[in-house]
Amino acid sequence: MTVVHINPQGVLAAYGESGRGAALQIRTLIENGRLMDLTTWLGIVIAPASHG
Predict the structure, then answer these.
(1) What global pTM score does this model have?
(2) Residue 23, exposed/middle/buried by CB under 10 A (0-12, 13-18, 19+)?
(3) Which strand (E) or helix (H) includes residue 49?
(4) pLDDT tens figures, 1-52
(5) Which positions ≥6 away from 2 have C-beta within 8 Å?
(6) CA-to-CA distance for 23 and 47, rounded, in angstroms?
């Protein structure tokens, strides 16, 4: 499952180093592509449809 956020880097800046629980995994989630920005996600979703 992928979570889409407008600005994952903002979440990382706000909670990544000092958060608790899942917030401590933000950097890993971004690196693994499990948390991505809206623009990237839209590119993935829309790109295959435009090649049809």
Answers:
(1) 0.68
(2) middle
(3) helix 38-50
(4) 788 888 888 888 888 777 677 778 888 888 998 999 999 999 988 876 655 5
(5) 33, 34, 35, 36, 41
(6) 31
